[in-house]
Fold:
Amino acid sequence: MVVGGGVLGTMHAWMARRRGFEVVHLEREPEPRGASVRNFGLVWVSGRRAGPELALALRARELWEQIGAEAPGIGFRPAGSLTLACDEAELRVLREAAGLPDAGQREFELLDPDGVRAVNPALRGSFLGGLYCRADAVVEPRLALPALRAALAGPGYAWLPGTEAAEAAAHGVRDQSGTWHRGDLVVLCTGANLAGVAGPHLAATPHSLRRVRLQMMQTAPFPGRLATAVADGDSLRYYPAYDVPGRSLLPPQPPAAAASRAQLLLVQRADGALTIGDTHSYDEPFAFDVDEDAYDHLRARAEALLGAALPRVRRRWAGVYSEVAGASGLYHRSAVAPGVVLVTGPGGRGMTCSPAIAEETFSS
Ligand SMILES: Cc1cc2nc3c(=O)[nH]c(=O)nc-3n(C[C@H](O)[C@H](O)[C@H](O)COP(=O)(O)OP(=O)(O)OC[C@H]3O[C@@H](n4cnc5c(N)ncnc54)[C@H](O)[C@@H]3O)c2cc1C
Structure:
């Protein structure tokens, strides 16, 4: 039994089928609408913390590539990424990152502006250099889940949308109609919902999950091909891999970026559109509307790096993920009842790490 049709639940269904289990997969919505379809689709190795986090991301990157060969509809592309420096302080951080002991595993290479343009000719704006990470990759978040389910379809896999798990007990869950679904193992992957079926367990268990809200937008197709994903120097302030001595010398972010804790991440979709984000807010209750100042900042940053005007923005949205806080690990896994496991809280690395997290569930 897998509860939750986001990427964590779907990867658990995938790994369970690969191990010969029959899988019944419950999703409360007609089609998943959570963080897994709202993200960039970045399989992001570059920014991960050295040690277990990097190892998990690298294993996941390997699994995504294998899964992409079996389910081409997920749109896996080994596109790599470029993190661009616009001043000397950012360039120093990139230089230090390129010299880290694990830079080889991340496939880092420091490039000058001409080198950046040779890798990604669409970057015709102004920057001092870039850190090329060949290990980074991209999948299509709006296509990946249906493509994975299509590859799973057949005997041994039952997809039950519109079915909400209301209660969990040993080896089973009860749905909203009162029907019990039972199995050898139940995996709850209910995302950032800290109430609901996982709520009583989370309330009774000391845990340190917090929720984060992000703003995103997507343009009409861009008239050019972005060969890599792109990040700006603000991302150096947020990703743990860049916790190098030079980070303390970075100047303050511009006020609009600081107010929304923004970093520019830019990914071209398979249809040419650009997905652009993001911001970070931690204080609940979260705003129910989106803030245009943050979008103005992100648009200006993207245009400065591309050296071109962005196409019209066609979509804006916000998304919420949950993450384990501090030193409590890379994600949350706990036993809710005999034969019932809750897996959640992978934070901003959840799309990246989901196949490796699911693999760990079956080896734990
Ligand atoms: C804007 C944004 C950008 C991001 N970008 C990236 C990125 O580029 N790369 C990266 O690695 N990570 C990224 N992340 C993080 C990543 O998207 C999440 O960590 C990941 O999607 C979490 O997956 P999930 O399956 O746990 O949650 P979700 O995708 O939220 O799925 C949970 C599912 O469970 C269902 N559900 C809940 N309760 C029940 C119930 N009781 N019964 C049945 N179904 C239920 C929900 O309807 C939902 O479909 C981003 C997140 C956001 C919000």
